[in-house]
Amino acid sequence: MTLLIAADLASIALVTCLMLALPVLARPTMPFGVRVTTDRAGDPAVVAQRRVFARLTVMMAAVAATLSVPVLLAAGHPAVIGTAVTALAAADLLLYHRAHRKVRAAKDVGGWTAERRQGVTVDTTFRTDPIRVPWAWSLAALAVPLVTAGIGWSRYGELPATLPLFLGYGIAPAQREPATLFNAFEPVVYQTAITLLVLALVVILLRARPDLDAARPKGSARRYRVYLRGIAALSLLSAACLNLGLLVSALQLWAIITPTSLWQAAAYLPLAVLLGAWLVWEAKVGAAGHRLPALPGEEKEDSGLAQRDDDRHWFLAGTVYVNRRDPALLLHARIGSSWTLNLGHPIAWLLIAVLVVALASLGLSALFGVIDLPQKQSLF
To answer: Which of 115, 131, 151 is the last residue of a domain?
Structure first.
């Protein structure tokens, strides 16, 4: 029970720290997903919302800990931790959205948009000399599935008739399933899917519209190039870390190592390293590379323009973008190192429709017995 309480409090502390870091790591000109000029980045209205958000977030953490610990002592089930963390994250996101609305209201009332003439900057070298996929960083992500497949193939003939239930980052020794080819090599299937998905995402992101600043066209373009190269490399490293965790689980699945709490923690260790790497990246580089130091000549760069980016097209605190007049399909979101689809673009809805149809077809096929879906828990 002590371990469950410690896990509960640690999870609450982790979610709280991540939420407190969101406004701190954001670009100074993008407080709570609202675009402002450099002159307004330190406006009293913005500073006040940062302080209120931090206080309310800490208060919500205290409430979550106060309510979840007694429930956990009474129920004694790990599901309480997941429920508490989910509720806390939802409450913190609502607080973030509240701060977004307050800053946007201050911007509208104060007429901040009219203080500078709006404009855009374009760097055609992102098309004539695009950033290439850093294939060297993909070697680890590609090597781990090959090593896992090799180990599994050498072990396959010695496997028992049944295998433990594979849970992704761990196994359930008490639950058994037939040692079919798919069940035995399921970790490799996950690894392959992760690797291909990350590679595809990297290729797409490198072709997405750059997030440049009209006030600092030269400096923002250079920083964004550095930023995009780092994002590509770190994404491929992420695939390698995810695959390493699955390798540890695969070794337990094939009874090469005995499943213990220590090995369970070892499966999650690459994920912890991955989280730390992304946090360090955000702290040192920042979204769109805004934390990178300026080169000589860039310190005082100011075109006198403000980036044209209407808040009316952004929803859910800068995470959802809808603009029918914008030809861009994929663009950088206003929160962290993330991208979002332009839901005003017809192709975006076509992609969503294809995904919905594919999932619906899969569900109907399973419902009518055409295919059998494995009854398993989440990959994590």
So the answer is: 115
Is the CB of residue 70 less than 8 Å from the CB of residue 57? no
pLDDT band of 379, cuts 50, 70, 90: very low
Residue 368 has pLDDT above 70, yes or no: no
Pick the closest to residue 50 from 25, 74, 69, 72 (CA basis): 25
Output the pLDDT for position 347: 93
Phi, psi (degrees; rounded to nearest 5) at 347: -65, -30
Q: Looking at the chain, how many residues does it have?
A: 380
Sign of the alpha-carbon dihedral angle for 29, 315, 98, 279: negative
Q: Are 149 and 188 in contact (CB under 8 A)?
A: yes
What secondary structure does DSSP assign to 190-239, as a single string? Answer: HHHHHHHHHHHHHHHHHTSBP---TTSHHHHHHHHHHHHHHHHHHHHHHH
pLDDT band at 200; cut points 50, 70, 90: very high
Measured in degrees and rounded to the nearest 5, phi and psi for residue 123 equal -120, 105
76 & 178 share domain: no
3-class secondary structure, 178: strand
- Mean pLDDT for 99-104 is 94
Residue 174's pLDDT is what?
A: 84
Q: Report pLDDT for 318.
A: 84
Whether the per-residue pLDDT at 247 is higher than 90: the answer is yes
Show the domain range for 333: 309-380
Whether residues 320 and 367 fall in one domain: yes
